[in-house]
Backbone:
């Protein structure tokens, strides 16, 4: 099989798997119980997502700085 075609097929299967997992009642229920309220106001959701994205960006920047410092000294 052509490598490009195999990669495309793998990507499509991954998207399908993730969609199935998201649609799963069990997975959605677990997420709602753990961290996502099943009922929310849109403004509240945007605020929570913004905070989480900012937190992740700060973590990514810190990891990048550490990696750069490690490669510069090593």
Residues:
């Amino acid at each position: 099989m052509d490598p490009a075609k195999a990669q495309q097929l793998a990507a499509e299967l991954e998207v399908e798997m993730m969609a199935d997992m998201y649609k799963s009642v069990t997975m959605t229920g677990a997420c709602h119980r753990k961290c996502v309220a099943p009922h929310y106001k849109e403004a509240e959701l945007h605020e929570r997502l913004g905070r989480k994205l900012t937190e992740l960006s700060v973590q990514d920047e810190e990891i990048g700085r550490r990696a750069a410092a490690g490669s510069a000294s090593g």
Q: What stands out?
A: The mean pLDDT is 82. The chain has two domains: 1-39, 40-74. The chain is about 85% helix and 0% strand. The radius of gyration is 19 Å.
